[in-house]
Amino acid sequence: MNEYQHLTKQGLWDNNPALVQLLGLCPLLAVTASVTNALGLGLATLFVLVGSNITVSLVRQFVPSEIRIPVFVMVIATFVTIIQLLMNAYVFQLYQSLGIFIPLIVTNCAIIGRAEAYASKNPWQRAAFDGLAMGVGFALVLVVLGAMREIIGNGTLFDGAELLLGEWAAQLRIELFTVNYPLLLAILPPGAFIGMGFIIALKNKIDAVRSARAEKKTVTRARVTA
Amino acid sequence: MTFNSMQKNGLLLAAFAVIATSLVIGVQLLTEDKIEKQQQQQVLRTLNQLIPPALHDNDLYQSCRLLEDPALGTRKAQPLYRAWVDGTPTALAAEIVAPDGYSGAIHLLLAIKPNGEVLGVRTLRHKETPGLGDKIDVEKSNWIKSFAEKRIRGEDDTRWAVQRDGGMFDQFTGATITPRAVISAVKRATLKLQQQADVLFNADLPHCQEGQQ
Fold it and tell me: Which residues form the FMN-binding domain (chain B) (predicted)?
């Protein structure tokens, strides 16, 4: 397995920032009440992660380790602010519906975690790919959780997708069933925790089954969490 | 030695801060006009939803004037829009604030006829809980449309409250504070605009653009 395949596997599954590292839970739990919001925040986080990873990797030679953390924080904050301004200017309605959670990308530990654990030790191409894999892994979990909560809570999928993707996306909206009273539990934060718990449990189950199948081969693995 | 490296690190940090700040300033300058335009468009779109073309033959955005009145929910001067048809006043709209939302101020746009009948209310900006209080947003629910065609009898009109408080407006499951805040802000502002309608249509108020600078 080459480095890029390894990075893909790490980001999407083995070391998924949301399911394994359990980083960035605040935005993850807060915005996943609908698929559209989840996708919007997932893409914003992905962009910040790739941008900050590349920048951190490019400046790693000049930055002494004593001041690396404040430098990383500045890099990340800069990217988040830029994203926030761009979203405000070009996807205004989505910006309004994500609201406070865009500036909160700054506090997503997955981003500084990748800067510290990977980008600051590797060339920029790999750092960029690591950001991409981790960002996609994070966004996928957001979307899955968003879909679960939107279906259970509201009976719809892709409600309001036109806010993110333009007018054509209005037809993406699927009404699975009508609810007179939305199941509040699914939409409120406890629903996010419960849903998240089920997803992690499912992942662990899949991993357990796979390792049971491969039990004859003894593989020792060291998992590094940031 | 230590001092030297401290100096060097300090300078490096400062250099990063300068680069980061100038990048942000650059993007802000690039997007400033676009963001301003988006906000204007949002207000204009909302205005056009509330005041149909039949009710005005003047440019609503140009009609913007600044009005300072505590009944609008804030001490700051708020934009007021005036509509005429052939010189006859037909509608008044104002950006108002419900300061007592569940998570901070709720910014609303209210339009009334000169006789006090509400043409409609829309939420411009809010931070209410997603899935609960955000039903005041017309994207999420039709609740805010229930203000249309309502009239107010006076200060002690008890129908202007959520049903739980004996009024005529629905509350939301799990969220009562938000609709209460919106209703009381709309009630307060409607009363004021209705009483002052004649004065406001003729008053010489500062233009919006000038006032902001």
Answer: 101-193
CA dist., res. B31 & res. B12, Å (int): 29
Q: Does residue B59 form part of some domain?
A: yes
B31, part of any domain: no
What is the count of structural domains for chain B? Answer: 1
Q: Which residue among B24, B31, B139 sits closest to A88, beta carbon to beta carbon?
A: B31
Cβ–Cβ gap A31/B130 under 8 Å: yes
Contacts of A163 in chain B (CB under 8 A): 139
- Are the beta carbons of A58 and A120 closer than 8 angstroms? no
Query: In this structure, is residue B63 part of a structural domain?
Result: yes
Contact status, residue B200 vs residue B80, Cβ threshold 8 Å: yes
Contact across the interface for B31 and A184, Cβ inside 8 Å = no
Parent domain of B171: 48-212
DSSP reduced 3-state for A61: coil
pLDDT of residue B41: 84
10-residue stretch averages of pLDDT, chain A, 226 residues long: 86 86 82 85 92 93 88 93 90 77 83 90 93 93 91 81 74 76 76 91 92 73 62
Burial class (CB in 10 A: 0-12, 13-18, 19+), A184: middle
Is the separation of the CB atoms in B117 and B74 below 8 Å?
no
- Distance in angstroms (rounded) separating the CA atoms of residues A62 and B104: 44
Coil vs helix vs strand at A193: helix
Q: Is B91 helix (H, G, I), strand (E, B) or coil?
A: strand
- Answer for the pair A33, A150: CB distance below 8 angstroms, yes or no: yes
β-strand A174-175 against A156-157: which pairing, if any? antiparallel
Dihedral angle computed from the Cα positions of residues A168, A169, A174 and A179, in that order, rounded to the nearest 10 degrees: -110
Q: Please name the residue of chain A whose CA is at the shortest distance from the CA of residue B14.
A: A71
